[in-house]
Amino acid sequence: GRVVRAPRGAERACKSWLTEAAYRMIQNNLDPDVAENPQHLVVYGGIGRAARNWECFDRILETLRNLEDDETLLVQSGKPVGVFRTHADAPRVLLANSNLVPKWANWEHFNELDRKGLFMYGQMTAGSWIYIGSQGIVQGTFETFVEAGRQHYNGDWGGRWILTAGLGGMGGAQPLAATLAGAVSLNIECQQASIDFRLRTRYLDKQARDLDEALDMVRHHCERREAVSIGLLGNAAEILPALVERAKAGGMRPDLVTDQTSAHDLINGYLPAGWSVEEWKAAQQDPARHAALRDAAAVSCAAHVRAMLDFHAMGIPTVDYGNNIRQVAYDTGVRNAFAFPGFVPAYIRPMFCEGKGPFRWVALSGDPEDIYKTDARIKELFPHNRHVHRWLDMARDRIAFQGLPARICWLGLGERHIAGLAFNEMVKNGELKAPVVIGRDHLDTGSVASPNRETEAMKDGSDAVSDWPLLNALLNTAGGATWVSLHHGGGVGMGYSQHAGMVIVADGSEAAAKRLARVLVNDAGSGVMRHADAGYESAAACAQRNGLKLPMMK
Amino acid sequence: GRVVRAPRGAERACKSWLTEAAYRMIQNNLDPDVAENPQHLVVYGGIGRAARNWECFDRILETLRNLEDDETLLVQSGKPVGVFRTHADAPRVLLANSNLVPKWANWEHFNELDRKGLFMYGQMTAGSWIYIGSQGIVQGTFETFVEAGRQHYNGDWGGRWILTAGLGGMGGAQPLAATLAGAVSLNIECQQASIDFRLRTRYLDKQARDLDEALDMVRHHCERREAVSIGLLGNAAEILPALVERAKAGGMRPDLVTDQTSAHDLINGYLPAGWSVEEWKAAQQDPARHAALRDAAAVSCAAHVRAMLDFHAMGIPTVDYGNNIRQVAYDTGVRNAFAFPGFVPAYIRPMFCEGKGPFRWVALSGDPEDIYKTDARIKELFPHNRHVHRWLDMARDRIAFQGLPARICWLGLGERHIAGLAFNEMVKNGELKAPVVIGRDHLDTGSVASPNRETEAMKDGSDAVSDWPLLNALLNTAGGATWVSLHHGGGVGMGYSQHAGMVIVADGSEAAAKRLARVLVNDAGSGVMRHADAGYESAAACAQRNGLKLPMMK
Ligand SMILES: NC(=O)c1ccc[n+]([C@@H]2O[C@H](COP(=O)([O-])OP(=O)(O)OC[C@H]3O[C@@H](n4cnc5c(N)ncnc54)[C@H](O)[C@@H]3O)[C@@H](O)[C@H]2O)c1
Ligand SMILES: NC(=O)c1ccc[n+]([C@@H]2O[C@H](COP(=O)([O-])OP(=O)(O)OC[C@H]3O[C@@H](n4cnc5c(N)ncnc54)[C@H](O)[C@@H]3O)[C@@H](O)[C@H]2O)c1
Asked: Which end of chain A is less enclosed by CB atoms within 10 A, N or C?
C-alpha cells in the first residue's frame, strides 16, 4: 500500500508557497491519520476523494511542482486537465468536482461516469483539499449542541443525553462534541472498527456491551452530571425503534435525537437492517447487487426516520444532521418525513447571518507550536469572545491533531480577515516557522445551496437558488483566493446541493495581505449578503455594521 | 412605454470603459431594435431577460456609474446584490442567472420563484448582456447550413430547399442564413407580426398565402436555383404532418428539415395546434391555465416531431435545432424522438474541436464605420481564410445592424486573441472612435454542458458533465474578463443545460492587451481542452498545434 503524507518544514518542492500549499494539502488529505481509506484516495464522507486516481494524483503533484506564478491549474473531478496563463493575483488552482447538468444529476448517472473513469465524488473538503480530520466537524457539532442546549435547556446540558448514530469520518465527532458541550451521549455504530478508532483517539469514552448496559451507563452518568460518551455496536435502524418502544413503555427518553450515518449514499453509506457488515461490503463491490442494496438501505432509513418521528412526536428535540435521511425516507413512502427540521434552520442559520462558519487554518510547517501560537493570537485579537476562548482551550486539551496541525474556529464577517492578516504578519515576522493556509468547509454562510440542509426553509423560499454559491466562487476567484472549487452533491448526495470552496495562503508577503483583506471579507460578506437578501434582519444589520455595499438594500 | 438605448460616442457616464461597456451593453440588450419585448425587459428566447425588473435595471445602471476600478458588482438573476472590493485585473461584473439545485431545476419551481420576484430567466446572452440581435444567430445558422450542404449535397444548395418553423428572435435568422448558404427555404410561423418583422428587415423575401402557393413558390425558385426565402403563416404542428402526407403521396420533399419554435418553454414558446394566438397569449398570462397550456403544447410538439421522424425515415436530413423539441416529444410518449440528431453533433462539433464558435464584437462608439474597419482588419489578419472573407462581405451587404453596430465571425483558438489584440491596437491608435467590447454566445466550445444540444453524444459519454462550463467561468474570471456569467437552462430550458458567458473590453490600454491575450486564448483553449479530453483527435491536434498544456495528454 502506498502511504502519502504532506511534506513538513520550510523547504519547498514547488516554486512558491501558493503552489506548495496546494501540494501539501492534497497530500495531507490522504495522510493515513487523516483519510478514511487513503488506498482508494477516499478522504471522508463515503467516497469523497482527493483525486480521481493515482495517475491523476501523481500528475497533479508534478504539475504543481512546475506551476509558475502566473499559471493556473484546472482540475476536473480530480483530474488535472489544463494549465493556463493567468496572473499573480489569480488562483493557482481552480477545481470543479462532480457537477452534472440537473436532469442527469443522480447517482445512477454518477456511477456510470465513475465506472468509465470520467468522474469523481468531491464531497466538500475532500476534492477541494482542505479536510483537517475530525476537528472540523467537532467544532461544527459542538456549536450545534451548544445552541440546542441554549434553546431547549437554558444552556445547561448537565444530566441530559443525546441519542445519535454513525461514528464515521464526520459522525465520529459527535461523542466528543457532546462531551465538550456538557452532555452524556449514546452513539450507535454498526462497525466495530469505527468504534475502536474513536476510542483510540479519545473522541469516545467507552463502549457498552448491549442496549441494556448502554442505558444503564446513560442513567448512571446523567445522574452524576458527567459528560461521558458511550458507544454501542449495532444497527440504528433496529436500535432506534427498540428505544422508541421502551420510551413508550415508560423507559428512558433522550433529550436530543439526531443521526450521522451516511444515508446520503445508499450504496456505500447505510447498512440495511438484518445485513452483516461483510455482506454489505461485498454488495458494495458488486454493481449487480447495487439495486438490491439501495432498496434495502432505503427501507431501513425509513424505519430509522419513523423512530425519529416518534421521538419528535413525544416532544423531544429531533433534527436531521444533514445526511439526507428525511428525503430517503420520504421517497420510500414516509409522507411526514420532514416533520422534524434540519439542524441548520434549527441551530446554525443565526450564525450564518453574521457570516460565521467553519473557518480553519493549517500550519504548513507541520509544527504544532505554530498552531498554539495562532491560538494565542486569536485570543488576543478577540479578548471578549468567551465562547471562542472556551473552544480554543478545550480544543487544545482534547483534540489530537491529524496530519498537519490545524485549528478551526467559527469566526464571522469582520473577524476572519483580522485573523488572516494577523497570521500573515506572524509568518512575515518569523513567529511561525512556515506559511499558514486558511480555508473553510463548503458548508458555510455564502457558499452553499442545499435545500434539505444548509438552505432548508429560507425565509423567502429561495432554498434551491444556486446563483449564490456560484457567485461566491466567482467572487473568490476574482479576489485572489489561492484555490477555488465548485462542487455538486456534497453531504446530501447527487442532485441535492451545489457548493463552493475557498482556500487562501498567508505567506507573509504584502501581496498576500492584500488578497487576504479582500477574500476573507468578500467570502463571509457574500454569505451575509445572501441572508440579508433573503430577509433575515440580523444579516441586514450585520451588513450595515460592516459597511457591505448591497445596492438594493438602501 | 419606456425606451432604452445605449449611449453612443466617446464620452463616458461611468468611471472607466470597462464599466461603461457593461453600462452600454445592458441598455443595448433592451434597445427596441434589438430586444423582442423591451417593455418587459425581454431580450430574446421566450422570456430571456436583461434584468429582473425595472427597479433592478435602474439600480444596476446607477451602481455601474459609481463602480470603482477595484470593485466588482454581483448580479443574481438580474438583481444587483452586492459590490465587493477586488482589483484592476478582476472582472467588473459577475453574474449568475437562473441557477437551481438540480433536484429543483424545473419550470414549476422556476415559475414559483419568478412569481415571488426572486428569479429571472437569463437565457444565454440576454442576462449576460452580449446579445447583438439576429446577426449572431444568422452566422451560426449559416455555418450550420453550409456544413449540412457540404456533408449531404457536395457543398451545393442550388435548387434545394430547407423546411423549418419559427421566425422569432433566433429562428428569424433561418431564411437569411438559408439564402446566404444558397438554398430556397420554407419558413412556417404562427404569428403574422413575426413574419412582418422579418420581411421588413429583409431577412425574409416573401410570404405565401397558403400551403399550395408556398409549395408553388418553392418549386419555382428551386427550378431557377434562386436562393429565395418564403414565409407561411400557420402552425407547424399542423403543416408539417400535412407536408408529410403530400410527400408520401408523391409530392415535394424538402432537402433538410429542422425547427426553431420555442419548444423549450411550453408556456411561452409553442402555440398548441387548434389554438388561436389570442387564446395562447391569454393563457400565458393566467397561471391557472398553465397546466392545460403546457399539456396542449406538449401534445402538439409530439405531432410535430412525429412528422420530422417521418421525413427522417424517408432519408431526408433532419435535425433538432437546439430547442429541446425531441425531449418534449419523448416525454409525451414518442419513444423514438431521438432517432434524428441534434445540429451540434451533426454539424457544429468539428468546429468546436478547433475552438471555433460565435466570437463577436461591438463598437461602443455606435459608429458603423468602426465595425467596417474591424471587418477590413480581420480580412488582413487572416488573408487565406476564404470562408471568413465570404461571410464578412455578405454580412456587410445583407445584415442591418440592430442597436450598437456589431459583427460576429466564427474564429477559433489561435485566432481570437489575434483579432482582440488588433482591435485593442486600433482603439489605442485612434483608428476606432471608442473601445470595442468582445464576447461570445454561451453556445461555444468550452462554455456549455447541454446533453440534448451542444454536448449531445460526446465521444466519451461525458455529455452531462458540467464541470467544464464551471471551470470555463472560473478561468475567465481568473484571467480578467470584464464580465463573466454562469447560467442554467438556456436554450433547452430548466434542468437541461449549464453554461457560461464571457465579455472583455478592448479599451486600447496595455493592461487590456494583457487581459485579452490571456482570456481569448484561455476561453477558446478550455473548449479545445474539453474536446481533447473527450477523445476528439482533431481537438488533441489543435491543442498541440497551439501549445496548450494538458497535463494528462503527454
Ligand atoms: N455539516 C453537515 O451537514 C454534516 C455534518 C456531519 C455529517 N453530515 C452527514 O452525516 C453523514 C455521515 O458523515 P460521515 O463522514 O461520518 O460518513 P461516514 O460514511 O464516514 O460514516 C458513516 C458511519 O455510519 C455507520 N453506519 C452506516 N449505516 C449504519 C447503520 N444502519 N447503523 C449504525 N451505523 C451505521 C458506518 O459504519 C460509518 O461508520 C453524511 O451523510 C454527511 O453528509 C453532515
Ligand atoms: N444555437 C442553438 O442551439 C439555437 C439556435 C437558435 C434557436 N434555438 C432554439 O430555437 C428556439 C427558438 O428561439 P427563438 O429565440 O427564435 O424563440 P422565440 O420564442 O423568439 O421564437 C419562437 C417563434 O416560434 C413561433 N411559434 C411558436 N409555436 C409555433 C408553432 N406551433 N408553429 C409555428 N410557429 C410557432 C413563435 O410565434 C415565435 O415567433 C429556442 O428554443 C432556442 O433555444 C437554439
From this structure: N
